[in-house]
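Q: What does the assembly look like in three dimensions?
Context provided by user:
Components: two
Sequences:
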Amino acid sequence: MKTALFFCQVEDGGGVNVASVAKYAANLPDVERVEQLGVRPVIDPEAVGAQLRAAGVGRVVIAGDQPGFFKPAFTRAMELAKADPAQVWLASFAPVREGAEVGNERAKAAVACACRGVPFHLAASPATTPVQPATLVIGGGVAGIQAALEIADAGRLVHLVERTGTIGGHMAMFDKTFPTLDCAACILTPKMVSVGQHPLINLMTMSEVVSVAGGPGAWKVGILKHTRRVDASSCVACAICSQVCPVSVSSEFDAGIADRKAAYIAFPQAVPNVYQIDAEHCTWVQSGGQKCGACAKKCPKGCIDLDARDETIEVEVGNIVIATGYEIFDAKRIERYGYGTLPNVLTALEFERLTNASGPTGGKIVTRTKQHNKRKKVDEWVFAPDGAAPRRVAIIHCVGSRDKAYNAYCSRVCCMYSLKFAHLVKEKLPDAACYEFYIDMRAFGKGYEEFAERIKEEGTFVVRGRTATVCQVGEEMVVRGEDILGDRLLEFPVDMVILAVGLTPAAGTGELAKMLGVPRDRDGWFSELDYNGSPTDTEQGGIFVAGMCQGPKDIPDAVAQASAVAAGALRSIAAGRVIGSLSSLSLSEIEARAKSLANPQ
Amino acid sequence: MAIRVNPSLIDDLERYGAEDVQKCYHCGNCSAVCPHADESYVFPRRSMRSLQMGLERKLETGLEPWLCYYCGQCSEQCPREAEPGETMMSLRRWLTARYDVTGISGLFYRSPKAEIAAMLGLALLTGLGFAAWGSTHGQLGIYEGEGAFLNSHYVHLFDWAMAAVLTTLIVANSARMWWLTIVKGTPAPVPLSLYLKHAWRVPWQFFTQQRYKDCGEPRPWMLHLGLMLSYFTMFVLIMFFLGTVQSDTWNPVHVLGYLATIGLVGASAFMIQGRLKKTEAQHKHSHESDWIFLAQLLYVSVTGILQHVLHRAGLNEAANITYVLHMMGVVPMLVLEVPFSKWAHLAYRPLALYFAELRREAIGQVEAPPLPAGARPVKAA
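A: Here is the predicted structure of the complete assembly.
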């Protein structure tokens, strides 16, 4: 069948070299014409239809990053050409961040299949291999916890690797969840305890994946277990080590708004419920065993070994679940919001800890007060439980999101958590004025729009218009913004500003992606195999993505995705075989398979 | 009241340089960061909106584009790269065309080729005219006095004729601007007392450009003020003191002329450098009219200096030829560029700031929805 191939891009670039793919496609059998129409071409169905008819074309292939975008125009053109409009085929190549060579070969294969009228996933179907029954879950946030529990509850062994000293991830830091205003810890901690007690979950905290070898069904993964310097089996979390430790550093769990010791536990409900030594700040470790050592001397159980060493182990697993989560956008990058220079400009995560009953102020929303640090002999701005309550609070949406200078994408959860913050402010400080500055209110989930309406009814001023600056004018902190719906320019004197920071892939995502051979999209998130059809699979056989690491999403979506991943892993374990990696197929193999599927003799 | 919408307005504006208006998603960052936006005049976002909606009448009677001095902060911070600063610049070009009663301005802005052709045509005509007139009434070897190739007395008369044409055009166009912005665009009557009360603003803005200074960075303001004052000084010297300008070196008028020349060459060189380097937001995009403006300015200044130097060196023939070349730049600049192109903002901007105050006071307090508790409107500086 005579085939015409059109390259139409929605965005430029994206790592695929369109010219080289076009050159390759020109030599495919039956391909009569190849046209590169560039980015967002305007397609006139009548003109194209006339050309197709004159050339006697029976099949049209649209190739590009989002070819479906152009399908209606070409379908109409085929109708006008009196050809079969069902013969419009799409060859999609998703943008790739790294591994352009792989991306190019994949694009060629997609074009080769479409030109023969064969669905890509039929031709590019890797062979299956036997699968090991154990599964590795990387990341112990809510997604990793959920996936691990689902698989272990089905009776299969799970190795759960977590970089920090406790599982729980970001969700453990949150106060309430939206839109139900449930207590986040009440949902998460029972799951955490189940993980800690599960006989089929081998929990490895303070551990990192350092090497990956083998292949689908039999991955050999090297795991570096940083030493905790506290014996997990005998520690009873009595806190004496922490009490005697002289070193104070800012607490990661409290998002930096409070301090912890170098001998510490992230939070009282941590799993495993064991103290840990922060080697980077421990006086003993840093002085090479010359100074301090107070915790080891005072420990009533004698379970602290300050000289313990890291170890590397290897596990062999059939499936791997990536659940590495995210980081928040660094608000210091946008200087005009004053984060890092104005004491009462907070990130969302800092506010989350401030308003949390387990936070440094016991959940009281206060502004920072200046205190003299006698040891360091400097004035510091700290959150003290007796600090002054803010009378006016501004919440600024889209910090670092939907902005071409930072992240062009929408981080998806910020509108909703900002509304939740407004509710918490109004609940705890009924007389305080609370302003939300937004661009578009993205209340997309079940019950979300109702939640947004409820917040407005509670008296929060929801102002359409992103503010531009937060600045100190004399004694006042002033937020200046356009009130678009009120058609005016306003200034808001405020006592506290909360920046609704966006989300970015977790640190180390790039290295992990390289080790696992899983591509990332242009924003750095892990790429799923197919956005609609296989949103939790990756192109590596037996490697899945769950939760934020695949892209911003809220807790219900992350949990649902984690359960789906567990089903995927269990499917292969039950069948005894796992589908291989897409990269195991060469272009010529896919071509040959497409050819045999197109001409079944 | 019915509102007419021009759906192709945004396409039309593209020819004046506004290319990215459709990218705007109305976050309001630009208005919030603008040092000149206040409770009465909120821009650039509102202008972007009017453009997207095709509200031609609203834009035509608006004063906002003239209140912007293109510091570029809005464009630098725009999350959509929609270039609000360049949109305001394009609207100024579009308004210049709207105020122009002859329609020549719109032709020039939309078709730079037509502008260049007109400039070259007039230059050629000027050159031929002066050459013909000079060779029949004087000798190429004589620069001044009896038998001079271009007798300064007649040149002066010619200057005055040109100034008369120029004044007529500027007055007519300014009157149209007044008609559009005050008579049609201000919903309240403007009493005579208000006109008198604020009249001082026109010369004040013209000579100090105070508002540009409020943009923040002093350098662009100083360059702009330097260029404008040099130009104005040169214009006054030529119109009223042409005889004295060409007298001895240390005459005060003469010294002033030298200073103005340095100002013209220096400022235009810096501006060309800025537009070539494209580091500041306001210089990233250059419409053809911006280049024509600067090229012409530099040409006129350099030929003026050259003519002077050659004359002082006693090379009368060369000086006379350069004089003709100089006039070939001056005449198109004064007759075409000043009333119809970028130079026109020299009149429109101080007038707009004056009109803006008139409008603000004439309208007074308007009814608005209640403010969110604790918020206050941004007052004018």
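Follow-up: Residues 59 and 331 of chain A are 51 Å apart (CA to CA).
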